[in-house]
Amino acid sequence: MSPQPVPIFRVVVDGRDISGLIDNRLESLSLTDNRGFEADQLDIVLHDHDGALAIPPLKAEIRVWLGWQATGLIDKGTFTVDEVEHSGAPDKLTIRARSADLADGLLMQRERSFHRQTVGAIVRTIAGAAKLEPSIAEALAKEVVDHIDQTNESDANFLTRLGQLFDAVATVKAGRLLFMPMGACTTASGQPLERVLVNRQAGDQHRYNVANRDNYSGVRAEYQNNKKAKKGEVVVGKADNLKTLRHVYATQKAAERAAKASWNRIQRGVAEFGITLALGRPEIVTESPATVTGFKADIDNGNWTVSRAAHTLDGNGLATSVEFELRLNEVETK
User: Fold this and answer.
1) Residues 300, 298: Cα–Cα separation, whole Å
2) SS3 81
3) What pLDDT, on the 0 to 100 scale, is given for residue 193?
4) Which SUPFAM superfamilies match (predicted)?
């Protein structure tokens, strides 16, 4: 009988490695890798039964590594603390942080116009203002935009809208502003991502969904409202015919992000597939090409792209929940 795999982690706060200090206090560590300008999210829950834990300051920098003892650690990025909560009894400290790469400047509303400029020039202008290194697919960089206005709109939203015009995705990873064709499957440095292979035996839950984008007018997401001891909800789009997300999110912000991402997927017209892997795979990142096997032919034959990867380390071990996307026109032409 092969030995039970042992998960490992490393957490560094403002340059100080605190892994050993929190090892016996860790209730859960959840890290979600999102695509586009939906910030990557880190949640750490620690036991504070003796009151010895210090509450980290807002904007503290956290670096995280996850992995297995047999294969080593994988760098999962740098995060900035944007929310802390101490609750009890029993006393617990919850730390929530978002990816440090998503510069605040990209979220500020601006008003300007671009006339007869290439996509490359537009993206480089925005990257320079945010102090990010631009990484633009060569074919897209040469495209000329006759005229486009940015009116009371954040750079993040503007770049997302610009991407929609060219079937491209804009995102920030590892200090770079990427502007790539949808499903390009490349790293921040432009190198091809390894294909993710998932078979049915590796997961204990899965779901496949295809919906006509004309069927829904919006998306509803629920969150746990601790102050009112009941669930709250957010709605993105119109309330006429809503798609309700199954997951109940920890905060209103998280629910808003999830609802917006789901609504964007519906509007893009994609099929969705998700699976929870019993043995976590922290090497999986968004935009990776993926192949799944052991399901229906329509699922197995799809050329999927990872759209979200959530890694959770808790008393049950290290698990990974992965979501994939596939264009509806690819499903319909098979």
Assistant:
1) 6
2) strand
3) 78
4) Phage tail proteins
